[in-house]
Recover the amino acids of this structure.
């Protein structure tokens, strides 16, 4: 199969270079059948490729038929607006891989996206809930039109068939006659699992760093040494979501559930693109993601469906260069060696070699595959050395990473792992202490009457200086306004609160205005009046103006019922249930996040070895035939 793809790619290259159009005479006659000149062309190309005439003739005829079919589709699209899509089916299916599917592109509205999904499922025997449709590297969004999603004539459509793991499948399939119903139930469970994953990631990404690190799971972003990176809140959330989706996708890749992994990896790619290119140069996660996406396509037998595989691999290469240095010098400075990261370059060279091979570029393919093979031999570890480190109490993962970092020296690796453990523990202690200090500062500000939101923002701007944060809030009173402040919402000020401020020496009317601005918070109102000499700054005076200034006894009564203190206890009946559910989905996410921060570097290289040898054998066969 791989050699057929290579020959097909090579023939297409020859046809482009020789400017031959197979869908036109003399290669195709008026009845759209093969012309006699096609046989002569097959003889000519078989001599150049040193292949059998009949094999080349068959491949040329396939290329010609597809070209004719595409031309017919182009004419139909011009006259009727009916677009032809190239549908790539799962590799397990016996039917031809690329099949044209026609759909009226002139149809309006989002329902056309559902119609496309329905047509694909109906045409190829799928349950609609059992497949994901990938177009332009994104899942088909049933809530958008095809035009909004860039679906045009001759676009490639990839169909992913969703399945659970083998263990789950065996456990759920009870009887043969109920298999159809069971598959539908399993697919619903898969979709439910994807939704739960998304919810869990959203919860973790939204959790504030002011929560207790001992009790509340919290995600943060660290550099290559393990220290937290300061990132703007918007970009931080996008990056956390991207990394969360990536980890979920990686966990599924490890289980070889490639069809399930790909949607999560593509979601990660989408969120990474929201972070900004400058941020992506700080961490190597984006490069690793590109490799994982192409690796998933390769295992799904869809590498040729990913039109921009070369672009993704080039993006990964450039990102590695920026993060690690031109000659890995930054890695050596930070980590002391680049041995562990070489596993990523092995996979990069392997995928580049495969991509070159399937595009008919055998010289470049051979070059990159040999690079991958050389790195494999360098990174291949003696099992006895791993056992020696296991006996010292280290994990297999630590042993592999340590030996690669120390060029296979067991003693150096043991020392390296021990030192790395202590460094990581020290960094964790320091980062935890920083978070605790920040929590204490936030709580101090909250005890002074400031909201958590204002406290966090002020501490961020003041770079952690507590006194400076207080001054900053008082100098910028807009920070202190309630986040959900509604100008039409009339807050009725209790008279006893006004009396307390008057007792402190403030003017009754101004005291009332201040309490109205801060929703009855006496501490904030008093601090602001003291800071501004017994008055309110102009911007706060404007926010205190409401259509009615009257406070009646009944108003005070209703106000006291709805005061911030009392309202804090409202709506708690279902809170514990919601919290339990949130904790459940969060724990599912945390299970997929590896404990070791260099888990992504721990490739056993077993799969890579098989693929390297397979494609090197293809290259050797080509070299033998060319002699």
């Amino acid at each position: 199969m791989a050699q057929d793809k290579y020959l097909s790619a090579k023939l297409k290259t020859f046809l482009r270079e020789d400017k031959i159009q197979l869908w036109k005479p003399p290669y195709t006659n008026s009845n759209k059948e093969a012309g006699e000149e096609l046989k002569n062309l097959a003889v000519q190309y078989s001599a150049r490729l040193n292949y059998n005439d009949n094999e080349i003739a068959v491949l040329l005829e396939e290329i010609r038929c597809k070209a004719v079919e595409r031309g017919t589709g182009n004419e139909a699209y011009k006259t009727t607006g009916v677009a032809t899509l190239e549908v790539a089916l799962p590799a397990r299916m016996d039917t031809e891989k690329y099949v044209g599917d026609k759909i009226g592109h002139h149809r309006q509205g989002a329902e056309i996206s559902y119609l496309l999904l329905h047509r694909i499922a109906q045409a190829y025997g799928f349950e609609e809930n059992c497949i994901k449709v990938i177009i332009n590297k994104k899942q088909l969004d049933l809530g958008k039109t095809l035009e909004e999603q860039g679906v045009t004539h001759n676009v490639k459509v990839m169909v992913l068939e969703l399945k659970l793991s083998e263990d789950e499948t065996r456990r759920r399939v009870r009887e043969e006659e109920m298999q159809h119903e069971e598959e539908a139930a399993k697919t619903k469970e898969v979709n439910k699992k994807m939704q739960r994953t998304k919810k869990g990631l959203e919860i973790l990404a939204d959790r504030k760093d002011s929560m207790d690190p001992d009790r509340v799971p919290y995600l943060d972003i660290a550099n290559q040494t393990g220290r937290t990176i300061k990132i703007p809140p918007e970009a931080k959330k996008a990056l956390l979501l991207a990394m969360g989706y990536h980890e979920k996708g990686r966990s599924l890749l490890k289980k070889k559930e490639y069809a399930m992994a790909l949607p999560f990896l593509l979601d990660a790619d989408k969120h990474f693109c929201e972070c900004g290119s400058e941020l992506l140069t700080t961490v190597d996660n984006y490069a690793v993601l590109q490799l994982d996406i192409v690796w998933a396509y390769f295992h799904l037998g869809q590498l040729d469906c990913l039109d921009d595989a070369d672009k993704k691999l080039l993006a990964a290469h450039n990102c590695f260069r920026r993060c690690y240095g031109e000659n890995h010098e930054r890695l050596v400075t930070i980590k002391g060696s680049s041995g562990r990261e070489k596993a990523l370059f092995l996979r990069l060279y392997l995928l580049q070699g495969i991509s070159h091979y399937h595009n008919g570029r055998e010289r470049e393919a051979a070059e990159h595959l040999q690079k991958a093979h050389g790195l494999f031999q360098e990174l291949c570890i003696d099992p006895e050395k791993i056992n020696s480190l296991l006996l010292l109490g280290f994990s297999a993962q630590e042993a592999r990473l340590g030996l690669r970092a120390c060029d296979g020296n067991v003693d150096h690796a043991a020392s390296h792992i021990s030192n790395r453990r202590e460094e990581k523990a020290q960094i964790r202690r320091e980062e935890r202490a920083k978070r605790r200090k920040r929590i204490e500062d936030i709580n101090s500000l909250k005890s002074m009457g400031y909201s958590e939101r204002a406290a966090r923002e002020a501490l961020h701007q003041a770079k952690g200086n507590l006194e400076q944060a207080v001054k900053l809030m008082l100098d910028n009173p807009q920070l202190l306004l309630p986040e959900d402040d509604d100008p039409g919402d009339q807050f009725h000020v209790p008279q006893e609160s006004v009396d307390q401020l008057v007792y402190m020496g403030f003017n009754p009317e101004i005291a009332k205005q201040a309490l109205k601005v801060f929703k009855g918070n006496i501490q904030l109102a008093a601090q602001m009046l003291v800071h501004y000499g017994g008055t309110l700054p102009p911007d706060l005076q404007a926010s205190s103006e409401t259509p009615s200034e009257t406070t009646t006894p009944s108003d005070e009564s209703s106000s006291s019922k709805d005061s911030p203190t009392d309202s804090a206890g409202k709506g708690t009946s279902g809170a514990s249930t919601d919290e339990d559910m949130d904790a459940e989905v969060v724990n599912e996410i945390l299970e997929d996040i590896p404990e070791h921060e260099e888990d992504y570097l721990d490739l056993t290289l077993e799969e890579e070895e098989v693929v390297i040898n397979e494609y090197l054998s293809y290259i050797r066969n080509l070299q033998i035939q060319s002699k």
Q: What stands out?
A: The first strand starts at residue 82 and ends at 88.
